[in-house]
Amino acid sequence: MAKVMTKDTTKDMTQGSPMKLILGFSVPLLFGFLFQQFYSMVDTVIVGRFLGVNALAGVGSTGSLNFLIIGFCMGVCNGFAIPLAHMFGAKDYSGLRRFMANGVWLSVLFSTVMTVFTTVFCRQMLTAMKTPEDIFAHAYSYIFIIFLGIPATYLYNMLSGIIRAMGDSKTPLVFLTLSSFLNIVLDLVCILVLHMGVAGAAVATVASQAVSGVLCLIYMVYKFPLLRVEKEEWRVNLPYMKTLCGMGVPMGLQYSITAIGSVILQSAVNTLGASAVASVTAAGRVSMFFCCPYDAMGSTMATYGGQNVGAKKPERLGLGIKACMKIATVYSVAAFAVLYFFGAQLASLFVDTADSQLLANARLLLVVNSTFFIPLAVINIVRFLIQGMGFGKVAILAGVCEMVARAIAGLVLVPVYGFVGVCFASPLAWIFADAFLIPAYVHLRKKLDKKDACYALG
Hints:
Shape: globular
Radius of gyration: 21 Å
Strand content: under 5%
Mean pLDDT: 84
Order of helices and strands: HHHHHHHHHHHHHHHHHH
Oligomer: single chain
Number of helices: 18
Helix content: over 70%
C-alpha cells in the first residue's frame, strides 16, 4: 500500500500566491532561527554578566571558527534536503525516502570524521587565529565542547531539513521552543550552580540542540507515515549519495569558504585587544538576532525553488524573488531604524561594564552593518534559490566573493583604519557576493528554461 501523508503536515509551494506561500513558510522558520539565536544570546548574556569581559571575549573570539565548522555542518544538511524537496515536488515518495536514508548514512560519516578532526586540532586552530593569551583558556573550553557536539548539530539540522523539504516549517519550531527554555535552565545550572565557567554555556547549547534533534526524530517516526523507510530503502546507493554530496558538500563549503574570510578578519580583530573583541561579540549577537529574517527567507527560497523546479514550474522562481524582496525591503528599513536609535542599549545587554568606548564601537558596527541589510537580503534570497534550483556548485562562488572581501578587510582595512575597518568588512562582503549572484541567477534561469524546453520537445 502506498504511503501517504495528510495535507496539513506539508505545504505544496508549486501553486498559489508566492507572497502568501513565502510568508506562511518563512514565519515559522523565522521563529526557529530566533530561538537558535536565543541559545547564543542566553549564553552570551550569562557569560558576559556573570563571568566577565574576558570570558565574553573568549567565547566571542571563537565565533568565526564556530561558523567555519558548524556552518559546514548546517550547509551540508540543508543541501541534503534539496533532492528531497525535488522528489516531493515531483511526487516521487519512494525516491524521497531513499534519498533520506542515504543522507542519514552520510551524516553519520561526516559527523564522526569532523568531530575527531576538530577536537584533535582545536588548540592549534585557536593558536593560528592569534587568540590573545588572557582569553585563550576561555576560548578553548567553549569551542572544544561545541565541537564535541557536532553529531547533535547534524542530528537536528538533518531532520529539520527533511521536514522542511516537504513544506512543514512549523514542527521544528515547536521543538526549538521547548529546547530553548531547557537551554536557559542548563545555562544557569552549569554556570551559576555547578560553576563550570564558559564550558557550562557550551554544554547547555549542545544538550539543547540534541534534545531538539531527538524530538524531531520521535515526531517523524510516529507522525509521518511517508517517511517510514522500508528495509530495502536503507541500502547504500552510490548514485544517490553522489547526488546528495553534489548538493550538500558545495552548500557546506559555501559556508566554510565564507567563514575563512571571517577567520582572517577575526584574527585581525584579536590584535586590537580584548575590548575590541568584546565589542564585536556583543554587536555580533545583536546583529545575528536581527539577521534571522534573512536566514528564514533564504531557507524558504531553497524549498520554494526545489519544489518548483521538481514540479517543472520555473516561471514561478522570478515571482518568488520579487515577493520575497518586498518583504525584505520593508524589514530592512525597520531594522536599521531600531539599531540606529537603540544599538548601544541592545549591546549593553551582553556586557556588565562602564566602558563607554566598548559600547560605542558596538553601536557603530551595528549601524554600519544595518545600512547594508538590503544587499544582505539579496544574498540570502538569490543564493538559496540557486541552491534550491540544483546549482549548488555555482553558489560556492558567492562564498568565495565573501571570503575575498573579508580577507581584504582583515589584511588591509583593519591594520589601517582599526575598528572602523572591522565595521565595513561585512558590507563589503555582501556587495562582492551580490555582484556575482545577480548575473549568475539570470544566466542559470535561462539555462533552466532551455532545459525544460528541450524536455518538453523530447
